[in-house]
Amino acid sequence: MTRQPYPPASRDELVDDLHGTPVPDPYRWLEDPDDPAAKSWLAEEEALFAAEMGGLPGREAFKARIAELLRSGSIGAPVWRGGRRFFMRRTPEQEHAVLYTVAPDGTERALLDPMALDSTGLTTLDSWQPDKEGRLLAYQISVGGDEESSLYLMDVALGERIEGPIDRCRYSPVAWLPGGEAFYYVRRLPATEVPEGEEQFHRRVYLHRVGTSTEEDVLIFGDGMEKTNYYGVAVSRDGRWLQISASRGTAPRNDLWVADLVASSPQSPELVVVQEDVDAQSAVHFGRDGRLYVFTDRDAPRGRICVTDPSTPQFEHWRDLIPQDPEAVLSDFAILDDLDRPVMLVAWTRHAISEISVHDLVTGERVGEVPTPGLGTIGGISERPEGGHEAWFGYTDNTTPPTVQRYDARTGETTLWASSPGAVEVPAVETEQVTYRSADGSEVHMLVISKPGVEGPRPTILYGYGGFGISMTPGYSASILSWVEAGGTYAIAQLRGGGEQGEEWHRAGMLANKQNVYDDLHAAAEHLIATGVTTASQLAISGGSNGGLLVGAALTQRPDLYAAVVCSAPLLDMVRYELFGLGATWNVEYGSAEKPDEFAWLYAYSPYHRVREGVSYPATLFTVFQSDTRVHPLHAWKMCAALQHAQSSDRPILLRNETEVGHGARAVSKTVELAADQLTFLAHHTGLTS
């Protein structure tokens, strides 16, 4: 197929001087989507994408199979409040998961259906939190992918909205006081009260009383603190204890305070420091037994659980209950106390595979383990707030749609509580966990998923993320299964920067160590080639968000190693990333171009600045979302123009620019369309013809 010419994109002679280094930026005009030239260029790129993709075979087959596999639906673990439970479920025909409630008498009904709120499918349910009695529900919704959540209140019994909207509640936790008369929540200051360009920052913690105007909300915390702070807030089940945490952006550390709401009032809590200015993450849980449980990576990068008295919450009073494991990473815990010998369930991931151990609640002694369905991923463990002998947890693996499992501590048995509601025929796949060595000798793990019995090199997608301590764990994916069923291999590398091996693994791939992540990906590619899984002409890489930065860096550093790339919602201009979206909250992960030494790290790998004319780059598809308020699509726009200008071969550089969706949740039909385009593109450029 003869490739059409790329849309013309003028190259400006714009060069910034940063710390004595000339930094060219020829496509800065693409940072403004309202610029007529940018609008024209985007329209032509859309036409080019449609023309190029229209000539590729296999898209309808991928689309049909992905849609079929997504008809499994989904199910979420129950949240119990006052004999009532709440849970999310998506049936095969639904575009979005629906929030359901089940009354004490067993009557089930839909409580919040995004499609009932908006038949276009553009409204998403971002978060929800019932009060402690299960009578009221706080929930947050946003429209068109912008994630600008508005907060509402609902009377659960009536199913009627009673308050809202309260705007500026993006990423806001809600912590109810007993009785449902008031709650703490987090809200940004109005745009009129902050400097221009900082509207996404400046959060505060407030106390809101149900039935009153937000003008009467009481400011509790956050005044005069770091503008990029995120705040967490929680209230113990009995209403006595308040905890507030603060972290600068996405930093892997937090400050933490608690207040006794009996000794001080809810509107003026006397906060006591648990930890402050400490390079660690900690959270506390007030147990029904009167003890304070501390989940922390302080002096334990793989995590540990300590105990103390709530009146002495400081570090010097902590005592180990569940010490750090030398290999597994602690991820969650739950307490079951309606037993002769109360226990704590502790969830771990061992090389990204989940397990749950059982421990004596008083001594921490390991007394057993919770049976799990297989080698997969366990979601959060939930218990009844009033106590009990049962726990529920989500489970999924590469061939199992989400399920909810129930563990009974009296019998020691795990049983299936609920399955995803759709019956689908899942293809048989084999998953192998392999290890390989990176450039500096570090051992890295990788999951390799393929069709049983396949031999010889085959088209392969290598996926990675490598950032923010996020772990790549097994999970049901219609896209992966469709690719493997068609004869390809899918590999997921657990790169440094993730959380698979704990906080030290994360920090080995952030800030000055970011190049380790890219080295880990290159080494994964070389391992797949050396072991006969694939060849360079059959190997694609794929990643989104921070993973988009990963594959953007990879294609500029080793264009010879990859045949094709899908780069989704990426960060690519690492010199100016802090100026857009939520970029300023990520300088704790990447560094800041304002600081000379950190600028040097960023500029050394910034994909946009590493594009060189006359290089044969892989076939590359950028997929971005016009309403993305986390990572502005300008990154991909500028990079696409730069690569199209520089490309020396006939391998295409394409841009898929989607409107009315954002970085996060989307309707199922939009997920299907995006995945089908991505797989079709990668199949064509790696030779997958099945």
TrEMBL record:
Basic and acidic residues bias spans: 10-19
Any one Gene Ontology molecular-function term assigned to this protein's record: oligopeptidase activity
SUPFAM superfamilies registered for this protein in UniProt: alpha/beta-Hydrolases, Peptidase/esterase 'gauge' domain
Keyword Protease annotated: yes
Catalytic activity: Hydrolysis of Pro-|-Xaa >> Ala-|-Xaa in oligopeptides
Record-given protein name: prolyl oligopeptidase
Record-level GO cellular component terms: cytosol
Entry's family note: Belongs to the peptidase S9A family.
Region (Disordered) location: 1-29
Originating species: Streptosporangium canum
The keyword Protease appears for this protein: yes
Domain Peptidase S9A N-terminal: 7-419
Coiled-coil regions, chain positions: none
Matching PROSITE patterns: PRO_ENDOPEP_SER
